[in-house]
């Protein structure tokens, strides 16, 4: 199990979760069964990124993941909940449903990549007994870095293995002058990785093509065209 975590929302964690899942599926272990599990109850994104809004069915006392491609499955609360449900599913009910999903599904897949909620919450505690490996996602913004420290502290306190850190949204390109600049500073990810003695896997740039593809529903179809995807493919080549 690989848990993709971020201390702060809006840093591209869900995008990275799709990248990582697809890279493992397509390039390293295509014969394996992959499950991309979105457990962000209040802000599920995976169904939108995959442009797949099919309803999740309930069979054999558990939710049945959607097979998006052969041997590539996903399960997102975005395909389970109605908009009004998110306010209702709190505390014990949320944990009980998640525990049932994990208990019934995890052993059926060779790789489970979990898109977790930002910060640290009860959802993360549900994952602990599966001893997930952690990939943390941050931007170089001070607020995001501070929150990512809490994420890494949580991983270390629970003896979880940290694969590394991805610094996303590192630069943005001006299409008028063709120059790139750092909207949040440039060294935050490097300094954080050094402080925690973990690997800085990649420094990825803002990509307007990703934003546009999410809006028009073509993000998943265009994955291999994105620079960030291909950078991560090279970085993760020796990790799995």
From TrEMBL:
It holds the Pfam family ParA. Gene3D superfamilies: P-loop containing nucleotide triphosphate hydrolases. GO terms for biological process: iron-sulfur cluster assembly. Keywords: ATP-binding, Iron, Iron-sulfur, Metal-binding, Nucleotide-binding. GO terms for cellular component: cytosol. The keyword Nucleus does not apply. GO terms for molecular function: ATP binding; ATP-dependent FeS chaperone activity; iron-sulfur cluster binding; metal ion binding. The keyword Chaperone does not apply. This is NUBP2. The gene is NUBP2.
């Amino acid at each position: 199990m690989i848990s993709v975590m971020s201390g702060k929302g809006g840093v591209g964690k869900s995008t990275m979760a799709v990248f990582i899942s697809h890279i493992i599926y397509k390039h390293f272990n295509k014969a394996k069964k992959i499950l991309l599990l979105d457990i962000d109850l209040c802000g599920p994104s995976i169904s939108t990124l995959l442009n797949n809004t099919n309803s999740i069915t309930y069979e054999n006392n558990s939710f049945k993941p959607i097979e998006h491609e052969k041997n590539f499955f996903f399960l997102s609360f975005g395909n389970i909940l109605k908009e009004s449900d998110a306010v209702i599913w709190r505390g014990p009910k949320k944990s009980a449903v998640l525990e049932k999903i994990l208990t019934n599904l995890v052993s059926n897949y060779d790789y489970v990549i979990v898109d977790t909620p930002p910060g640290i919450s009860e959802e993360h505690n549900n994952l602990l007994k599966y001893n997930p490996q952690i990939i943390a996602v941050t931007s170089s913004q001070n607020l995001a870095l501070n929150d990512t420290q809490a994420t890494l502290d949580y991983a270390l306190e629970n003896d979880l293995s940290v694969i590394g850190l991805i610094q996303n949204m590192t630069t943005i390109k001006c299409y008028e002058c063709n120059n790139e600049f750092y909207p949040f500073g440039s060294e935050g990810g490097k300094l954080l990785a050094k402080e925690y003695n973990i690997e800085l896997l990649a420094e990825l740039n803002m990509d307007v093509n990703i934003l546009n593809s999410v809006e028009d529903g073509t993000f998943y179809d265009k994955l291999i065209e994105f620079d960030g995807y291909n950078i991560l493919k090279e970085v993760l080549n020796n990790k799995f």
